[in-house]
Amino acid sequence: MNVTRTRFSGRRYLALVRKESLHIRRDPRSLAMAFLMPVLLLVLFGYAITLDVNNLDLAVYDQDRSAASRDYIRAFPASNYFTVVTDAATYAEAEAAVVSGRAHLALVIPTDFSERLDQRRTAAVQVLVDGSDANTATIAIDYAEGVTEGFSADLRGQVELAVENRLRVWYNPELKSRWFIIPGLIAVIMTVITALLTSLTVAREWESGTMEQLIATPIQPLELLLGKMTPYFLIGVFDVLLSIAMAVWVFDVPLRGSLAFLLGSGALFMLGGLGLGILISTAARSQLVASQVAMVATFIPAFLLSGFLYSIDNMPRFLQVITHAVQARYYVTILKAVFLKASPPALLVNELAFLSLFALVVLGVALRKFKKRLD
């Protein structure tokens, strides 16, 4: 079909914005996806994904049964990381606690524990750790070593080290995993939401047969593209604000940088995401195919290759190269930098440039594809 070529009309554009807005209001699925899905995903992932280990079950096999060994054992629950769940009578019982999963680790204290301490000699204790969960095992070992070092320091009365290492962690002094997971999670969720929202819009017109009616009008491809994107863009801005509010007030993540910059970069990010959804929607003939393609094309790369959860520097070289084409990678960097470091825009020029380039390329291809479908 041929479309009559006229100049860009603000009247036609606004009419299409109104039509799309009315459609969203009347479609419960679109409303749920636009307003409930970000909240649901943020709550689910925000609480489910955590690298912190705060409650480790400890089995104890104390062969010494002395005041010193009891003091040493009491130091574990006092650290707030351990709960003593089993006071084993035998070594086999301590082992069984770990094997059965009743305890994450078992502490075995030898019979000469207090005697060696009285003689100012080193007393070796054994810690059995369940290594089936490597992350938890590593953290449990670190915690146990910390408790032991603290107990030894108290016993000596003073620290006698030639070099004292005074560690200071910036931006996240308590190393709370939620502080770096939640900002990145906002980027992952918004990547999926923006692409999903617009991936259905054009496919829906083709499925319902209303696209032919739109083509019969003098509307231009650019007017149609912008008219369909605008309501979802405004919804996306609301979703970003909602996600930031939840990050600050629900998950206690500090927002140290500029909210205005965060929203501005978020708007740039959403243009690319919405354009990608339109591009998918233009290529797909059905809403089901469009939504499936949008989910696969956005969620997996954003989740695995954006640096949100896994360090890009630790990935194989070829995957590191691929991550440069993942839009969420740059928004994750911006979110973490603004939330935790209060980084100014001057330090994030590369990320902003890529988001701009991604939006221009995707919108340009979507518009070109749109024209071909309408002509």
Explain this structure:
Its main location: membrane. GO terms for molecular function: ABC-type transporter activity. This is ABC-2 type transport system permease protein. It is found in: Cell membrane. Keywords: Cell membrane, Membrane, Transmembrane, Transmembrane helix, Transport. The chain is mainly α and about 375 residues long. It folds into 2 domains: about 10-50 and about 175-370, no CATH class; about 55-155, abc type-2 transporter like domain (abc type-2 transporter like fold), CATH 3.40.1710.10. The chain contains 14 helices and 4 strands. It has helices at about 10-25, 30-50, 65-80, 90-100, 115-120, 135-155, 175-210, 210-215, 220-250, 260-285, 285-305, 315-325, 325-340, 350-375; strands at about 55-60, 80-85, 105-110, 125-130. A 4-stranded mixed sheet has the order 2-1-3-4, with helices on both faces. The radius of gyration is 28 Å and the shape is elongated. The protein starts with 9 loop residues before the first helix and ends with a helix.
Give me the secondary-structure topology.
Layout (H helix, E strand, L loop, with lengths): L9 H17 L1 H21 L7 E7 L4 H12 L3 E6 L3 H9 L5 E5 L3 H6 L7 E4 L4 H23 L20 H32 L2 H6 L4 H29 L9 H25 L3 H19 L11 H7 L3 H15 L7 H26 L1
Parallel strand pairs: 1-2, 1-3
Antiparallel strand pairs: 3-4
Helix pairs in contact: 1-9, 2-7, 2-9, 7-9, 7-10, 7-11, 7-13, 9-10, 10-11, 10-13, 10-14, 13-14
Organism: Thioalbus denitrificans
GO molecular function: ABC-type transporter activity
Keywords: Cell membrane, Membrane, Transmembrane, Transmembrane helix, Transport
